[in-house]
Amino acid sequence: MLVDKSTPVRHLASTDSTNSECIRLANAGHAAPFWVMADQQTRGRGRLHRNWSSKSGNLYASGLYSFETSPEKLAQLGFAAALAVIDAVSAYMPVDVLQLKWPNDVLAEGSKLAGVLLESFPQDDGSYLLVVGIGINITHAPQLPDRKTACVGQFQNPTSRQLTPVKLLPDLIACFEKWVLNWQQKGFGELRNAWMAKAYGFGEKIMTSNKIEGRFEDMSETGGLLLRQSSGQVIEISAGEVYFATGGG
Ligand code: BTN
Hints:
Bound molecules: biotin
Number of helices: 5
Number of strands: 12
Shape: globular
CATH superfamily of the largest domain: Bira Bifunctional Protein, Domain 2
CATH class of the largest domain: Alpha Beta
Helix content: 10-25%
Radius of gyration: 18 Å
């Protein structure tokens, strides 16, 4: 069974990327599930081949899990990871400033607080290995040319003890595994509803990375982004990046 409070964690001082380290460990015969965290990454990877700035102080962690389902369904676990970030960090900052931007970004007051990088690999027995990589800005918000960023520390009570990645990770794993169990037992419905309850930019105008425009109408039953175009037609976006006309997110 998946939910196991003792899912092992390897804590490294530094690595290139915790996602890459998970893949190396799996290839070397280490069985899922396990997590790898690093104090810093030298080649942190983001979605769409971007870099993920990875100086010490923020959380960089990846979990390796094995599932017998399709890669399309596994993509839904990106929403589980993003919700788990909200569940875990809301013990340290006001939950009402936290929102989710499709597909997997966590925002605080509209600025990026955390990101999720999912990678899946087919196995000879028909199962898939899933690497769920999570980066959370805890002590600093990296400056990016194209995005506003935030960190948990900005919202913490200055007199409370500083949150650390080591303190946050067990809660994050527990929250993620709670959502995975819910997804395995009940399907995507509750996860989808929880995600929509925190959705950023509902009803707003969106441009996709493929230059498709429309208003954010809903999330589909499978996790796609439903956009209502000016013609009235609703189309489903299943991959890529979205940009809000307001410039937020
Ligand atoms: C994004 O582009 O928003 C996803 C960022 C994911 C970053 C995390 S940090 C831990 C793990 N290791 C990586 O190299 N990337 C992910």
